[in-house]
Amino acid sequence: MLTIESTLAKFQKKEAIIGIVGLGYVGLPLMLRYTAIGYKVIGVDIDIEKVDKLNAGKSYIEHITSDSIANACNDGFEATAEFSRVSECDALILCVPTPLNKYREPDISYVTNTMDALKPYLRKGHVISLESTTYPGTTEEELLPRAEDGGLKVGEDVFLVYSPEREDPGNPNFETHTIPKVVGGHTAACLKVGVALYEPAIDQVVPVSSTKTAEMTKLLENIHRAVNIGLVNEMKIVADRMGIDIFEVVDAAKTKPFGFTAYYPGPGLGGHCIPIDPFYLTWKAREYGLHTRFIELSGEVNQGMPQYVIGKLMDGLNDAGKALKNSRVLVLGIAYKKNVDDMRESPSVEIMELIEVKGAIVAYSDPHVPVFPKMREHSFKLSSEPLTAENLATFDAVVLATDHDRFDYGMIKQHAKLIIDSRGKYREPAEHIVKA
129 lies in which domain range? Predict the structure, then answer.
C-alpha cells in the first residue's frame, strides 16, 4: 500500500529510480549528481542523436566531460527516447525548454507536450517536479490537471512540485549540489516528498509555501539581473557620450562595501533565463490588469544593445573611410557568455545577422564553438575562423562580443585594423579601438 512514509523512505534509502526528462544544460548535471551519490537514473530526451551519444559515454556540452558521462553509464545511467520508460521511475524531473514565441510571449509547449507524453505512464507514487523557468501558476494550471487526468489525486497518489533550476554553466565556483534548491509543493504532502527528492542530492533545500512562490522566486532572481544590466547598459550609453569609461566607473563603485552590486554592460543579454524570464512575468501580469513598466523598460534597453554595437561599428568604419556594406567583419565570441559553448539567446548572433543585413561579409571566431550550431531561429553555414595575425589582417573590423579567456587580446590589438569592444577588455585608449 502506498503511503507518504513509504515514498519518503524510498528516497532516503536511495532505492528510488530518478527519471530526468530533458538532457540538456540543466538535466545532465542533475543526472550526474544523482548517479554519483548512488541513485539509478533514467534520462529521457526526444533527440535520438543526443540519446545515442550519451549512451556511448560521450558528452555534447563542453564543460561536461565525456569521462563523467561514461562513468555515469558504468554506474547504471541510461538515456532513452521512449517515454514508456518513465513507468519504471519514482521521480520525474522535467528539464525542458521554455522559450518565447515570435511575439515575445511564453511558449510552454515543451512543458505541456512533455506532460501529455508522460500521462499514459503516470502511476501511484510518482513525484513530478518541474524545473523549467515559467510564469507563476504554470504548475497548477497546466501540470495539475494533466497529472490528475487519469484519476490520480495529487497530494495522495502522486506528488507535484516546482523547483527552479539554478545552473550557471562554466562557473567553477558552484556545482549542482552546492547551489541551494528552492522547492514548492502543491500540497503539504507534495512539499514533503519534493524535499525528500532533493535533500540527498543538494546541500541546502529551501522549502517555500507553494509552487507559485517557487515560480515567482525564479523570475525575481533573473529579473533582478535583467533590470540591473539594463540600467548599466543605459549608463554606458550616457557615459560614452560624456567621454567616461563606464567600466572604470563600475570598478570604482564596487569598492563601496554596502548598498551596491556590480553589474557590467555588454552587447545585450544572452542565455536561456535572463533575456526571457521578464517576458514571462509581464505576460502573466496582464491577466491581473497590471503593466510592469519598469521591467519592460529594462527589456527595451537590453534588446537595443546589439543595434548600438552596430552603430559603433559603422562609426568606426566611417572614421576609417569605409562603409559597412561589403566590409569583412569578424565577430569574436558567439557563445552568450565567456568560456562556455552555450549559444542560447546569444546577442552575438543578432549582431551577426545585423551585420549581414547591412551588406557586410560576416565571419566569427570562437574557440568554444568550432561550427555554428543548429538553432531554432538562426542559421549561418560558418565555422570558427582561426585567430592568427595573418587572418585578422584580412578583416576590416572585429567586433568583440564575448570575452573568452582563450583569446589572445594582445595579438588581436596588434593585428586587427579596427576593434569594436563591447566588453571593456581594452581600457587604454587607442586610435583603432572603439568602445561599444
Answer: 4-209
